[in-house]
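In this section we walk through a basic example: taking a raw amino acid sequence and producing a predicted 3D structure, encoded as discrete structure tokens. The instruction is simple. Fold the sequence below.
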Amino acid sequence: MQNVRLLAALAPLLLLAGSSPPANDEPQAVVVTNFPDTQQITGTVAIERPLPTTRLVTVKALVTPGGPSNVADLTDGGALDGTGFAFATLSLAVEVQGSLAGPGKVGAMLVPDQSDILAALRSYGVVQFPLAVEAPVAPSAAGIHQSESKAVRLGFPKYRVFFYNTSPRTSEVTLYVYLANS
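The resulting token sequence is shown next.
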């Protein structure tokens, strides 16, 4: 019986959800219905600004040569807060300083910012639950390279960003993280 009442109460909202938005950009009246048996709401209900559904975060670093397997070689890019977002698209831009004689890879790893996971990384060199993106680098006139964009599902609210560079030259690296909810 309670499910029938709930469906009856939600029916007008479901009908409105499928309708097209009003033609003008004027504010529209909104009705909030309180269901005290299900969820007690008291006080004022207000949204000061629209909730963000996406956000672009940019992390830049100067990355010296060093592989991903040696923790001492990783360049720490700082913290990334993805709280409230479920997905991210990772894109890596690389500008190699000087000329390269051969190919290499420059990458970024997002490691969950959890004390036990970071302790395993620092103490034993074990990278747990990484989200990674990598850009191949090779000799070129401009020295500019990029990764393919990589869509990932976030499993933790906060991450630490670590960079590596298997080429023999220092590189200026920019990680673009596009956070989204769908």
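Looking at the output, two observations stand out. Helices lie at 2-17, 115-124. The CA atoms of residues 96 and 143 lie 5 Å apart. In the next section we compare this with other chains.
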